[in-house]
Amino acid sequence: MVRINRVYTRTGDKGKTGLVGGARVAKDHARIEAYGTVDELNATVGMVRAALARSKAKKALDGILARVQNELFDLGAELATPDAERRKRGPAIAEHHVTRLEEEIDRLNEDLPELRSFVLPGGGDVAAFLHLARTVCRRAERRTLTLSRKEGIGAHVVPYLNRLSDALFVFSRSAAKADGFEEPLWEPAKS
Question: For a FRET experiment, which of 24, 25, 105, 150 has its CA 20 to 30 Å from that of 34?
Answer without folding.
Answer: 105
